[in-house]
Amino acid sequence: MSTEEPIQPQDATREDTSMQDIPTSHGDGAGGGDAGKAPRKRPRLDLAVDSRERKRGKTMFGLVLGTLNRAKNEDKARNASDAAKKRQLIEQRLQDKLKKETDSVRRAEEAKKDKTSANRKEEELQLKDSIHKLRRTRLPLLANFLSTSDQIPSEEDISSSPPPSTNPLAPIPRTHPPPVFYLPAILLPGQEAFLKRRKAEVKEAAEKEWISFRDERKAGIEEITNLRRRVAEEEDRKKTEQPQHNPEHTENTNTASDVKMDDDEALAQDKTEATTTVSSTIKPDNKEEPTTATSDQPSAKDMDVDDDGARTDGSKTLESDSTKGSTSAVVPPPSGEAPPASERKEEPTLMQADEDDAVEY
Predict the structure, then answer these.
(1) How far is CA 260 from each of CA 248, 257, 263, 293, 310, rounded to the nearest angstrom?
(2) Has residue 289 been placed in a domain?
């Protein structure tokens, strides 16, 4: 309780001051309306700032400018480096390639549309040509006949000139029963005049229609020719753009062929080395055989042995030496095949040779 007692007078003083301020503010607002409406003045900058704070602001501003300038310089150096130049060159090539592909695709689509349009217009023109040719030949022939739907003027109206028909080439109106063309053996004066007038009108109208269509056909042929020429130019451009021999492909094939040739040469060299090593290992044995045979073996004159026996003994010794020196020199015949006739003949001679005739090493 002792701690709360000094707090109360402070609160009371605050309430008193607030109560005193409120009426004064109301009085000012009520009494001085003009003063309340006056605009507030902008606060002036205090130029009398401490020099330390001004230096600090300048330092911060200088640091910011230095950072920005350093980033700008680094960006310039990065763009000026070789890697950046290569990157820009690659990007430019990609952009050019993309633009070229886009243009080629667009031209291909336009050529496809032109080709389709040319085919469609050609078909329409052929159909119109056949129709107009048929009308030019058939309508004047039908004008020589009367139809049940014709309104032939009477004899009284022959003297008065009838009004010309608006469309002499108009199709015959369909009725039930359908109209029938006929030609009497003897024509009445009204019928004869009607046929004569209609023949002239139909012939003149058919010629006018054919002339107008001929001009239209000429313009259509020119348009179709232009479309087909553009399609042909696009196809020629595609053929010229396609490389006949791809340099990368040829370079790769040349490299592959060079590598293959090097491998073949290395393989051939290895084979030759292997053959030389095998021959070097076999040649000393072959060279020693005649020397040992001449030194240790007695001559055929000293030995009372026939030539056939000497031949068989020599072949036997050579065969034994060759089997001892290298196993690859003797190739046994397959199990399923019979030995040759020469070997079958030599076997009994080898068995008949005496042990005294054999050469000892």
Answers:
(1) 18, 5, 5, 49, 54
(2) no
